[in-house]
Amino acid sequence: MNDRITPFFQSQLSLPSRILMVAVAAALLPAIFAPIWRITLHAPQYPEGLSVHIYSHTVKGDVQEVNELNHYIGMKPIRAEDFGEFRFVPFFILRFFAFAALAALVARIPVAAIGYIDFLVFGAVMLVDFQQWLSDYGMQLDPKAPIHLDPFQPKFLGTTEVGQFHVTSYPDWGAIVMFLAGLAGPAILAYEWWRRRAEA
After folding, report:
1. CA-to-CA dists, residue 137 to 33, 42, 153, angstroms
2. How far apart are CA 84 and CA 69, in angstroms?
3. What is the pLDDT of residues 128-154, one digit of tens each?
């Protein structure tokens, strides 16, 4: 097995893989300015729902209305500065683009692999930190709030019932673009493996 793996990782990337790599990385650039995550609240008195859109640099949507509701259950207000991990999104997207451009230039699989692993690690850390942020908001309720609720663990992906509200958390289009870009790594690796075997 090592006789196959070692030469494979020492081989050069094909032109189609290099073009795809740069194209995918370039498609990621608009995600720097895109909403990354969305939290939507539905209740009988809000049939159309209230939504909060989280960006790398700000929070938009029905933030004031949601914060007013959060006040009644003792939850601290949602503020852009609380999403510290998202501030690194532009930096890592640019870094991923730089790795892709370098890998395409030198046509080496190890360079592409380092960039891809870097991208995956950042994504995993960002999701863990975001779950911790949600946990802090749901578990640290003010006991003197007008409406008493037991502390709860919000889901970072899915729906959590909070009183009569259904709170749904899911990725917005910026995160979806990053996820789809992440699929390009295994696709390129599989193609290069198939190409090398076909040429053998």
Report:
1. 25, 18, 9
2. 23
3. 888 888 888 889 998 888 988 888 888
Which tens digits make up the pLDDT trace of 39-62?
Answer: 999 998 888 899 999 888 888 999
Q: How far is it, in rounded angstroms, from Cα 164 to Cα 49?
A: 13
Q: Of the candidates 103, 127, 94, which has an alpha carbon nearest to the alpha carbon of residue 15?
A: 103
DSSP letter string, 69-138: HHHHHTPPPP-GGG-GGGGGHHHHHHHHHHHHHHHHHHTBHHHHHHHHHHHHHHHHHHHHHHHHHHHHHH
Span 108-135, average pLDDT: 84
How does DSSP classify residue 174? H
One CATH from 1.20.120, 3.30.70, 3.40.710, 1.20.140 for 12-199: 1.20.140
- Three-point CA angle 59, 62, 68, nearest 5°: 105
pTM: 0.80
What's the burial of 196, exposed, middle or buried (CB within 10 Å: 0-12/13-18/19+)?
A: middle
Better pLDDT: 116 or 65 = 65
- Indicate the helix (H) or strand (E) that contains 7: helix 2-10
Nearest to 112 by CA among 194, 9, 190, 5: 9
In 3D space, the residue among 13, 24, 20, 83 whose CA is nearest the CA of residue 54 turns out to be: 83
Domain spans of the chain, in order of start: 12-199
